[in-house]
Amino acid sequence: MKAAADKKVRLDKWLWAARFFKTRALAGAAVTGGKVQLAGHRIKPSRTVKINDCFQIQRGYERYEIIVTDTGDRRGSAAEAQSLYRETEASIVKRASESEKRKLALMQRPRSESRPDKKQRRQIRQFIRKS
Fold it and tell me: Do 57 and 63 form a contact (C-beta atoms < 8 A)?
């Protein structure tokens, strides 16, 4: 039987097992679309994952910079998935600050207490037609 370090695992399968993406198809599409990079270079979904590889993963607004610690190919619990990689300290700090910026920007946007009633909708339509 092979040791965990000797096991060859495709990148799309590893991303799925590490719970970065819900399905292997989504993981493969993200890699093909350039959302996953190895040291700043685009890669293919069929690339073999090696221990100490440093990946940059873009998922929505979040950008992770991770280092592979294990090459598991089975999707398990979240605790098992987190044991497959280690996120860099700079990545954690940057993600937290970006999240805080998004929250502050959302608070800056004006929001009404409720939906417009019928009279207000008519006024909105009338205003839009005039401009």
Answer: yes
